Write the structure tokens for this entry.
Amino acid sequence: MERIPITKEGYQALKKELENLKTVERPKNIEAIEIARAHGDLSENAEYDAAKERQSFIQGRINELEYKLANADVIDPSKLPKDKVVFGAIILLENVDTGEEVKYQLVGPDESDIDKGKISVTSPLGKGILGKVPGDEVTFQAPAGKRIYEIVEIL
């Protein structure tokens, strides 16, 4: 079985989403199906079709979250070495071309949020910096073109 690396915060966020789907969204959807059924002929009932489609989406997401949580490998970044870039590390990078510094945390795919400074270990940059040490340069292909970053510090 594949273990899925995740931070404690990411794990809690997935648990919260799962709980919301089970206790709020699914019961609301069941009620919508019952209301739509009460309108009569189901063969031409758009409300019923939409509610059933939503039910399928909710159940699919519940199954996906349950799988991810069951296979989660919760990693505490504070207990990891700071001599090289590993999952959970917070890294200060400098764009070699512009001198601009950026700070990212290396997280699992479900936690990535570039606006919050969290990049996935499966992203091009994430793959490129994994295992590197301060002073190393990383070249990767971004959507806007080739980028070169130097690892300044592992925080």
Notes: The longest helix spans residues 8-37. The chain has three helices and seven strands.
